[in-house]
Amino acid sequence: MVWIAQISDPHLRPRGELYQGVVDSNAALRRAVAQLNQMSPQPDFVLLTGDVVDEGMPAEYAVAREILDKLRAPLLVIPGNHDEREAFRTAFHDHSYLPEGGPLHYVADAGIARIIALDITVPGEHHGLFDEAAETWLALALQSEPARPTILMMHQPPIVTGVPYLDDYRCFGKTRMEALIARHPQVARVLCGHVHRLMLQGFAGTMLCTAPSLATAIALGAGAEAEPASFLEPPGFLLHHVPEVGPILTHFIPLGVFPGPFDFA
Which domain holds residue 105? Predict the structure, then answer.
């Protein structure tokens, strides 16, 4: 079995600055790293599904490396719309799985499973795009090991959530992506960030799952009249259990230390 933790959207700021002037996002990631390091069993991998920093600045990436380098488990990262691709590549230059140029697609070995990272960000824009070039790359990656359980990680989800100000910034190209993934039943999960909420939806014969943010939660405002807003809801991360045989099980882990343990009866 493999345990894979997923953190997302920490939106790190330069030292001493608050995210949106409201929350200490740097401190939240420090707490998450400490909590991950104390877990038993330890995660075999930690995935960070984008928006590592808030404005793509070198000072923010310096904070990211200071905090993330304390993780005990191996870290796999992809950029989000708030990341700057080349600054991101420079900041994580020692992560040998990252390509030297172009979109930051890669494949990583996770023991019994594979992890495919797909960089569908559009530089300078907030939406994502699964275009013909991304389709060609992903098709080759999936064809190379058609029988091995595979987790696909990306930032913007390609689904309509019903929250209008989120859906404007989704990953476009859903039909193209669905058709490809439907031909590859080894894809056991599609993991995303971006929406700052936990969401689950069946997708192309598998399950798509978005992780909450470690910073703020985007308001679940449905309807065309909904105004963009965020809340300081309890943050958390996801833990995916990949067994030798059978489907993946996903847990939500709240960030923090809570009363207990108590007798179980």
Answer: 2-254
